[in-house]
Write a structure and sequence with these properties.
9 strands, binds pyridoxal-5'-phosphate
Length: 241
Amino acid sequence: MMERFSVEEGFSNIEHNLSVIRENIKIAAEKSGRTAEDIKLMAVTKTVEPVFINHAIECGIDLIGENKVQEFLSKEEFLNLDNCKVHLIGHLQTNKVKQIVGKVEMFQSVDSIRLAREISKQSEKLGICTDCLIEVNIGEEESKTGIAYDEVMRLIEEIISLPSIKIQGLMSIPPICENVSDLCKYFEKMNRLFIDIKAKNIDNINMSVLSMGMSGDYKEAVACGANLVRIGSSIFGPRMY
Ligand SMILES: *Cc1c(COP(=O)(O)O)cnc(C)c1O
């Protein structure tokens, strides 16, 4: 395989990128009346080779996100995960749940009761309780996964009766927008939903994580209330499939 960069160049790019991103997160957090410590930075590691993922972990990354079950399972043994947690962030098929439950800390993209039931069922077999986020299709886009905004509460009410899955918050990917003010409307709508649900103080849910913002829009997401950002290409460079 052709290497575009030497490993050393890759490492120094990751170091540089992380320091720029951390500074940007700090500025955006302050805009929303918070500090950098209030915002969790996830490194999205899909398609990234373990050597670079491990370097990011050495640079202080303690949360990574993978979006495919198979890819994560094939890389897992090469990763230094002693001080780093893993979330599955991609759409999860019900038939893959069994392979991955117990191996990641959280599923960020639960968008149906069928999927939630399977996660609960497989978790129960292992004697664990699995954390999840509800993925909201905030732009009501047909091409996207996630539950419709209007159906979020109904899904939450169904999930809280399941014994071995626990809701920790919300996740969303907004539509591609032509300008920042349109983009922020989606992020703000998510933040209001998050705050409204939290205010209900429902038993067995813990509205603590609002996961939104990727390489192209994490500053806006944080300024609008996100407390977990999922950043891939701005850390590791463009993905090569
Ligand atoms: C790939 C991916 C990201 C990161 O995307 P970048 O634009 O590379 O930062 C974030 N969230 C999800 C769900 C993804 O699949």
